[in-house]
Design a protein that fits this description.
Shape: globular
Bound molecules: adenosine monophosphate
Number of strands: 26
Largest sheet: 5 strands, mixed
Radius of gyration: 23 Å
Strand content: 25-35%
Strand order of the largest sheet: 11-12-13-14-15
Length: about 525
């Protein structure tokens, strides 16, 4: 048993040592050989500092040190937990506590509060370690994370206000990588991949796995660059990107600028999407501006390892008024549609809850047997092969040809600009603020897309704030607890929440007030 990421990177480092693995504006290009050596040195340090095989947090943003740190964890027998430095520090501390204050490799300076909450000797300064010049020993391959061991844990928004960790195994990644290697353009090898999604989201594993198992190069774009059109476009012009992987929202943002075309990305030949609905207008604009490029829609939650379906969007798909399909399942995955109440399997064309069964379904939620049991189960594929299953909470239907149509959510999870947000997460964090008695958050939808979030709050009588003042006060306090993309844009103070006949918060009534 081996680890496909490590064996692939080592192979490229030996056979094509000068092949670039990571590029980024303002940073030096890093080759496969350099990255492998950086990872070796970091892995040696991890072996020295930690005895077991516990998960290790990797803290930072886009950099070659982050990639080397992920490899180092896997080489020394640890699952890596990617933590983007854009997350509020209290959220990072919540995650660290769930992991029993684990070792942290810092690819950039960690904030003081985080350093305070973990033991100083648990912090490894990646920059300092890779700059050391003394000899170090490579680890035996038997130490590598492999098989059913956890390869990474990605923390997503949790409905209780606490982020929840999803454990993806080395086997999951092995099978996902094998599938990805069959994708057009990717399969040719040595492609340049857009690397924009933050590493704490599993969408980023699309480009990381895709590039690393095919000798490709990650062209990283920082959040700072993403937020500045001028910087972003001049960076993209230099990038030579072949494979564009992003949420549809990020492509929409770029398409607003008419110069986003072959002028900017002359080589782009595959646009790969996941994470939220791909609208026809986005696919159409890309096909017009990037003639000859493939536009591919894929679907999957973090719990099933990045993506499990695939559909090349053709001209004929764009003529139909129907929403775009998310495609058919990858080999090794079966999709079922069930009645969410009874669990009974639905017929072709009928709508119900999407269930994913297959060899890329995660182990479950980290140290959370109840949540794991509620959503994951043991099953077998049609040919009898045992596999894990996952109830997605997504609504959809299958057509005669086995293509999946995504029809929304059955619960209060929303996708906004590609970010996965449990409305309950924001509500719990709002209610933990002094003075807030009740809170409900609703998505504000325009042109069938979620544009912003609106919060309704019932405050203690003693609270005198209202209107803009109250909104500013709540926003400022929430910013310390949840990521910026989860902060509602508007707040409205109510005397009492509207209730349904069975005394639940009447979200429909709130939605009509939110318009
Ligand atoms: P995440 O775990 O962040 O990848 O979010 C997973 C959720 O994103 C899924 O359960 C769906 O609700 C949504 N999603 C993923 N891919 C698509 C897609 N192609 N179209 C529509 N929604 C999607």
């Amino acid at each position: 048993m081996t680890n496909v990421i490590l064996s692939s990177v080592r192979k490229t480092a030996l056979e094509h040592p000068d092949a670039p693995i990571h590029r980024m504006a303002g940073a030096q290009e890093v080759t496969y050989e350099q990255a492998w050596n950086m990872a070796g040195r970091l892995a040696a340090k991890l072996r020295e500092e930690t005895g077991g095989r516990e998960p290790v947090m990797v803290y930072g943003h886009k950099s070659s040190l982050m990639i080397a740190s992920f490899l180092a964890c896997l080489r020394s027998g640890h699952a890596f937990v990617p933590i983007d430095s854009e997350l509020p520090v209290s959220r990072v501390i919540d995650i660290a506590r769930q992991l029993d204050l684990p070792p942290i490799i810092c690819a950039e300076q960690a904030p003081y509060d985080l350093l305070e909450s973990v033991c100083a000797d648990q912090i490894l300064d990646a920059q300092r370690i890779v700059a050391e010049s003394g000899p170090f020993e490579d680890e035996p391959e038997s130490l590598w994370v492999s098989g059913e061991e956890t390869h990474y844990i990605i923390f997503t928004s949790g409905s209780t206000g606490m982020p929840k960790g999803i454990e993806i195994t080395a086997n999951n990644i092995d099978r996902f990588a094998a599938w990805m290697k069959t994708f057009p353009v990717v399969r040719d090898g040595r492609a340049v991949f857009l690397d924009q999604a933050p590493y704490s989201f599993d969408l980023s594993e699309y480009q990381v796995v895709g590039a690393l198992v095919t000798g490709g190069c990650l062209h990283a774009v920082s959040a700072e660059t993403t937020h500045d059109y001028g910087l972003l476009f001049s960076d993209l012009r230099e990038s030579q990107i072949d494979v564009w992987i992003s949420t549809p929202s990020f492509a929409d943002l770029c398409l607003v600028d008419p110069s986003f075309s072959r002028d900017v990305l002359p080589k782009a030949s595959l646009f790969l999407f996941c994470g939220e609905t791909l609208h026809s207008r986005t696919a159409r604009a890309l096909r017009q501006r990037f003639e000859g490029a493939l536009v591919v829609n894929t679907y999957g939650p973090t719990e099933s390892t990045v993506a499990v379906t695939y559909a090349e969007i053709k001209a004929a798909d764009l003529e139909s008024p129907d929403p775009l399909t998310v495609g058919s399942p990858r080999p090794g995955t079966e999709l079922r549609i069930i009645d969410p109440e009874t669990g009974r399997q639905k017929a072709v064309g009928e709508s119900g809850e999407i269930v994913i069964v297959g060899d890329t379904v995660a182990k479950g939620y980290y140290r959370n047997p109840e949540k794991t049991q509620a959503s994951f189960f043991f099953a077998s594929l049609a040919d009898g092969t045992p596999a894990r299953g996952y109830r997605t909470g997504d609504q959809g239907s299958l057509d005669q040809r086995g293509n999946l149509r995504f029809e929304g959510r059955l619960d209060h999870l929303v996708k906004m600009n590609g970010f996965r947000i449990e409305l309950g997460d924001i509500e719990c964090n709002l209610m933990s603020l002094e003075g807030v008695k009740q809170a409900a958050v609703i998505p504000v939808v325009r042109n069938s897309q979620i544009r912003t979030l609106k919060a309704f709050v019932v405050m203690d009588d003693a609270c005198e704030l209202d209107g803009l003042e109250l909104a500013q006060n709540l926003k400022a306090r929430l910013t310390e607890r949840i990521p910026a993309y989860m902060i509602p844009r508007a707040f409205s103070r109510l005397e009492a929440m509207p209730l349904t006949p069975n005394a639940k918060i009447d979200r429909r009534a709130l939605a009509s007030m939110g318009r």
